[in-house]
Structure formats: structure tokens, C-alpha cells
């Protein structure tokens, strides 16, 4: 049984690139406004049902804090709208800069959706990571029931310099000024 499960998982992973739909390109360093993503009709079957793997491309310039604020599947209509195995992960495109090109690697996740705390009949996943500049994509996957859909938000923010860097720099400048002052005082004392 274990071998059968591993073989099935391997076959799904190998065929994932063939089933992937690039839903949209979120641009460079997407903000919360530009990073909104959704699919109201995921799946390979009719009426938004079946297995799906949706890709959302984005690029980062400089080191950024990436946050997936939420990815929600609300199934208020009951079980028919449920997404089984609703999962999200962020990948780096790898050296060939092609999503699904065989050299991609995971940088965040995969995160399996859990039940929402305050909202009944809801699934959610999210996360954050500090990432260097490069080409990335968010992969959202699952097995959608009829009429299932999801939405979420991905945003980035520049990494701020920590206060310790500014404190260290001001200390170095202060020590330089002190050394210069002492040197000047020695020159004046030597001239007298």
C-alpha cells in the first residue's frame, strides 16, 4: 500500500507541469493591490471540478519579505464546493527561469489549507518568507468539487535595515572623529 501511495504521488508530481495553468503574472515586487489572485473555476472537469495546479508568476528585485496574506476557499454551499488537498507553495524558477522547468525548488511551503477559525465552511493557508531577488511562482493545487473557487493575496515589502546597522555606523563615525581629534591634539602638542 505504501509503495502504491508513493508511486501515485510520484506520478502526480511528474505530470504536474503538464496540467499546470499559468493563471496570471503578478509582476515585479507585487504589492497587496497588485498581488491579488483568484480562480473561480479551477479544475480540469466541467463546472470548476477536478484536479488543478494553478501558477502565479512574479519577480523580486532585491531582498524582499514575501507574504501570502490569505488563500481562501469558502464553501458556504456545503461539501460540493470543497477543495480536497487545497495546497499552496512558492517556488524559485531555478537557473533556467522557467516555471516547471525541472530545476525549480521550494522556498515556502507546501502549506495545506486548514479550517478557518472564525468563519464556518472555510479553508485557508498562508505564510511568509525572506527571499532574495529572482523569478518565483506561487503554485496552488487541489482537487476541486463542482463550483469550488479560491482567492488570496500575495505581497512583498523591502527588507528594512535593522536599527543595529545604523547604531554601528554612527559608532564607527564617532570613533573616527575621536581618533582624528586626538591626532590633531598630538600635532599641536608636538609643535609647542
Summarize the structure in words.
The protein is of the alpha+beta class and 192 residues long. Helices cover 24% and strands 44% of the residues. The protein has helices spanning 2-19, 163-191; strands at 20-28, 36-39, 50-60, 64-74, 83-92, 105-112, 114-115, 122-131, 134-144, 150-158. The strands form two sheets. Strands 1-3-9-5-6 form a five-stranded mixed sheet. Strands 2-10-4-8-7 form a five-stranded antiparallel sheet, with no helix packed on it. The longest helix has 29 residues, at 163-191. It starts with a helix and ends with a helix. 26% of the residues are buried.
Order of helices and strands: HEEEEEEEEEEH
For the secondary structure, the number of strands is 10
Strand content: 35-45%
Q: Mean pLDDT across all residues, rounded?
A: 75
Gross morphology is elongated
Question: Nutshell version of this structure?
Answer:
By secondary structure, the chain is an alpha+beta fold. Helices cover 24% and strands 44% of the residues.
Can you give keywords for this protein?
elongated, single chain, 2 helices, five-stranded antiparallel beta sheet
Could you outline the blueprint of secondary structure elements for this entry?
Elements (H helix, E strand, L loop, with lengths): L1 H18 E9 L7 E4 L10 E11 L3 E11 L8 E10 L12 E8 L1 E2 L6 E10 L2 E11 L5 E9 L4 H29 L1
Parallel strand pairs: 1-3
Antiparallel strand pairs: 2-10, 3-9, 4-8, 4-10, 5-6, 5-9, 7-8
